[in-house]
Amino acid sequence: MDTNTTFISDISKKEFPVADKVSGKTIRNPILALIQKDYPDFSSDEFLSIGELNLYREKYISNYLLVEIGELSNLEAKVIGSLEEDRSLVSTVEEEIGVRTFGQVIADKVAAFGGSWKFIILFGVFIVLWILANIYILMNKGFDPYPFILLNLILSCLAALQAPVIMMSQNRQEEKDRERAKKDYMINLKSELEIRMLHEKLDHLIMHQQEELIEIQKVQIEMMNDILTRISK
């Protein structure tokens, strides 16, 4: 073969040595599609130089890396967006539960005070002082002598009023707990669905990467074989 013989590339219309001649039939389909994107008239029956082919091989690898970086960035943005949506949902739940009427506020305060050690101690001191005042100070002849009928009446009235108020607060607390449980279920379900979607995206990304990496390895092997062939000549 005469090494001085040249040929004309069908894409650049430039003259190259015949030793650099490459047929379109030997080019891998992804790279051929990339060439045809720039040169629509180029077909598999035409020829180009090995240098031009290597440029498109490098372009193909570069495009793949850029696409992968973009997919990873989009995936990260979706995950962050999902987390932000979850956080806003939780804050909405707390705001909805936190809305109380005036009567509910009073019931909560009465229930909180009536179920505290402060109330028990103060009321215990009040009863002891009442009994001592009527027995020792007023010599059991005061306004409420033994068996302290007025004190029993006060205690009965207090219990009769306090019990419904505490029940109102408990009912409201149960309603809050049911609402929280429902919202927690919604949040957990949303998180589960997002985790499933994330797994599917990762599986798709991994499979896509494996296919593309195999394709890139084939292209690199072709480039290495071309280099070895040129060195041997």
From TrEMBL:
This is DUF1003 domain-containing protein. The chain crosses the membrane at residues 119-139, 145-168. InterPro entries: DUF1003. Keywords: Membrane, Transmembrane, Transmembrane helix. It comes from Flavobacterium zhoui.
